[in-house]
Design goal:
Elements: H1 9-27, H2 32-41, H3 54-63, H4 74-85, H5 97-101, H6 109-121, H7 137-153, H8 157-174, H9 179-189, H10 193-212
Helix pairs in contact: 1-7, 1-10, 3-10, 7-8, 9-10
């Protein structure tokens, strides 16, 4: 895992960047110009944090293939997004908490309502409310980032501890309970290095954040 002394907030900011990156490409269909820009900049060879988490190592290995020296297969990346997350028939790796925590393996309103109530405790509402279910992975990662921002900004020790407890509770209840199963399905069905890397990146980043706070 990443080494963190409790005061170097740059590490948590680095993980926040990774969550934003990974969550955006789960939530939104990739744009060809964006993928080529990412590859041309070699940005995925320069992770903002270092970690010995095996999943993080796997993420780096896959994402390092997205670079200026390697041809980009955008069609494979786009096809992955559509097949994995629901743009083309039954999703192979549905990015919804309720799918993995429901005994019926179907969208379960209970999980959606529970996570929505958690958002409300911070006075937060997704801009996609009514368009995307509240328990979508991309939405949950946005909320985790919100809590990380507060954790970094708060100086008061008591409030700091309270936000840390909230982060641990949220990851334990709404993320680590199902992300490994989701990533298993993603790795089984993904064809592009890009989405295989993003799957490992999200899981390992959440695990590392949980261990740091």
């Amino acid at each position: 895992m990443t080494k963190y002394n409790g005061t170097s907030n740059d590490i948590l900011k680095g993980y926040s960047m990774l969550l934003y990156f990974g969550g955006s490409f789960i939530l939104n269909q990739p744009m060809e110009s964006c993928i080529y820009e990412i590859a041309g900049s070699d940005i995925l060879r320069k992770m903002p944090v270092e970690s010995d988490n095996p999943g993080f190592t796997m993420a780096s290995a896959y994402l390092n293939h997205i670079n200026s020296n390697t041809p980009v297969d955008f069609e494979a990346i786009l096809d992955d997004h559509l097949r994995l997350f629901g743009g083309m028939g039954t999703p192979k790796a549905p990015p919804y908490e309720s799918v993995y925590l429901s005994e019926e393996h179907l969208m379960n309103q209970k999980q959606t309502l529970e996570v929505k109530r958690t958002y409300a405790t911070y006075g937060w509402e997704s801009q996609l409310t009514g368009k995307v279910p509240e328990d979508h992975l991309g939405i949950e990662l946005q909320f985790l980032n919100l809590m990380l921002e507060k954790f970094v900004e708060i100086d008061d020790d008591a409030c700091h501890r309270e936000v840390a407890a909230d982060i641990r509770r949220f990851t334990d209840t709404h993320l680590t309970t199902w992300l490994s199963d989701w990533n298993r399905d993603l790795q089984k069905n993904a064809k592009s290095n890009f989405y295989k890397g993003i799957g490992y990146l999200i899981v390992s980043s959440v695990e590392d954040i949980r261990s740091l706070v």
